[in-house]
Each structure stands twice: as C-alpha cells, then as structure tokens.
Write a structure and sequence with these properties.
It is built from 4 helices and no strands. By secondary structure, it is mostly helical. It is elongated. The structure holds zinc ion. Zinc ion binds next to α4.
Length: 139
Amino acid sequence: MAKPADTRTAGRKPAAKSTRSAAETEKIRAALAARHDELRAEYDQTLSEITELQRDRLTDSAGDDQADTGTKTFEREQEISLANSILERITQVERALERLDEGGYGWCERCGNPIPVERLAAFPSATLCVTCKQLAERR
Ligand SMILES: [Zn+2]
C-alpha cells in the first residue's frame, strides 16, 4: 500500500514557494543593474589597459631584454585573466536578471526561502541563503 503523502521528501525542492513582493523584486533588479554597470565599466577599463600594454610592447620593445619582455607578457596575461573573470561575473549578473524575470531567481536552492536582497546585491550569483551557505561550508 502506497502512503498517501510522503512528508520525508520535504525540503528538497519546495513545491510552493513563498512570494516576494513586487517592490522587493524591483530592488533586486536595481541592485543587479547597478552591479552590471559597475562590472561593465571595470571591464572597459581593463580592456583599455590591455590595449595600452599591447601598444607598449609594440612601440618600445626594441631595447627590451628577455626579462622586460617576460614581465610585459606576464602583465598582459594578468590583465586578460582579470578581464575574463569580470566577463564571467557580467554573464552571471545577466543570467540572474533573466531568472529574475522568470521568477526563478533569489530563492535558496536548499531550503527554498527567499535570499535577502542585500545578499543578492553583494553576491548576484548566490544560490543559497546565509544559513544554508554556512551549513554547506561546515561540511
Ligand atoms: Zn537556505
């Protein structure tokens, strides 16, 4: 005989989510949009630094010894990996905005509770509430 209701699976994927107010959703959207602008500016800045480093390499590489060339290559690689990580964060924020529109953003994956707006503003890619995050880190 199958049991009519299985209460032991509760907490895995909550069927009924609590709702977030429209004002709160707007707050999250504003926070994400602000973060997006910030990251874009940072990305543009990094790109122009890469261009500059590249130009330096081309213009005054005549008198360079191998060490100079090595340093410049290293600097450029640093800048590029920085640019890539910023780009990755931009993508995360864009994905977060999409999911926010679909209503799937900002809920703790573990307990299903809404993640506080402040936390989402600071960590747009957060998928766990602070409590669950701490539990996960303690493992
Ligand atoms: Zn949680």
